[in-house]
Amino acid sequence: MKLKPVVSALALGAVFLGVAFALKVAERNGLIADDLGGRGFMVLIGLVIAGYGNVVPKQLKRPRDTIAAEQRVQSALRACGWTITLAGLIVAGVWATLPDVVAEPISMLTLLAAFLVVLSCGLTCRRGSDPEATAGL
Description:
The protein has one domain (34-135). The chain has helices spanning 3-28, 36-55, 67-97, 100-127, 132-135. The longest helix is centred in the middle third of the chain and has 31 residues, at 67-97. It is mainly α. It has five helices and no strands. The radius of gyration is 18 Å and the shape is elongated.
């Protein structure tokens, strides 16, 4: 078992808990507005999603049989990474700037759209289509 991914995941979880605790304490003591704690946490979630999207294309995968297959996989990973990164940044920006009643549906629709694009990239790659088909996503 590789220890580095486990330690990284535990550290990220500790950061999440620490930020949530700090925001809740600040809310209860009147240091920040009542809705700012939840909004700040949603901004953090959006930034973590964006960070994860930045890591996706850099993941090492098993080598493919052909160069064309390798190109399809790399193209799909890049498209998925860009999609996830942009979705995370949109979620963070929406929660940082818009009211809750507007931010909630927009962020959910953004994440749903990103999921559908990632699913489409994966299916296109799996079908064995031209690598350029997913490069523009």
